[in-house]
Amino acid sequence: MNNTNSGFTLIELMVVLIIISLAASLVSPRVMNIYDKVMLHAEEQKLQDCLVGVKNRSFIRQVPIRMVFKDNGLTIEGEAATVKFQKITFSPLVVTFNGNGFSDTREIPYQALGIGKLFNVSD
Fold first, then answer.
1. Residue 29 lies in a domain
2. Distances (CA, A) of 51 to 17, 76, 87, 103
3. Domain for residue 2, yes or no?
4. Could you tell me the CATH number of the domain that includes residue 57?
5. β-sheet bridge partners, residue 118
6. Global pTM?
7. What is the tally of structural domains in the chain?
8. What tens digit of pLDDT does each residue of 76-101 get?
9. How far apart are the C-alpha atoms of 117 and 13, rounded to whole Å?
């Protein structure tokens, strides 16, 4: 008799699933690391945008504006604005932009993914 069973056996399917799961376990840590770096870059860009906005606002209005950095956020005094970050944390710090748009500090220290960094305010 001619046996015409076509298809895969259970063992063949199990071997393929094991190979796929091993490949996924090797790739996923790299993908998560890339995701963290992309998120960090986006938050650093958000920090830069906030600083440039406050700098321009203080210059246009010709009034000093204070930014208070603490934990994972910053508050713009007089604006009732608070910005929160997920990957960045700050030591308590107050930065004041004078009416000409210049700040009283050159660098803002922060922690990003456990690494200490400095953000240059004068850029």
1. yes
2. 50, 10, 18, 10
3. no
4. 3.55.40
5. 109
6. 0.73
7. 1
8. 987 888 999 999 999 999 999 999 98
9. 49
